[in-house]
Amino acid sequence: MRDTIVLTMMLLSIFTFGQSKSGAKQFWENLQKQCGKSFEGVVTEGAENDTFRSKTLIMHIRNCSENTIRIPFFVGEDKSRTWVLNYRNDHIQLKHDHRHEDGSEDKVTQYGGTAPNSGSATLQLFPADQKTCDLIPAAAANVWWITLEETSFTYNLRRIGSDRLFTVKFDLTKTVSTPAAPWGWQD
């Protein structure tokens, strides 16, 4: 009888383990639920003279496919920034797509990193990748992270070994009007 109970518990454990989703998958699915929505944010960490503080900050979770989510991030009238998240092999990658008003790529674009593990349902961490190190040598010590909670989304940057820290927090309980397309996109 005892052996049957132990075997049943082992099988139940294997079955339950096989059914649970990884942190990356849960994060991805929760972010996709926000697709199409726009939210206003505020700088909660950063230099006091940061020019972002005096502008309206809007993120629009604009484009979601099975493996890519594009989130334009508007700073006032500046529509040059899009966060591009890619989901592959149970890891999430963050890239920064920067464009000029005419839609052409900025010379400093496509930098970021890939999460070294599946992370959690509420936190994904992205250390700078080699492309970033080559493109922006000072950013070799950058770590970005995104938190996704029921009521908020935060985008964060820390440059290890310096006092550089930037956080913008978006309130997911209050949608705002959808902005026009970012630079380089078609409506």
TrEMBL record:
It comes from the Bacteria. This is Secreted protein.
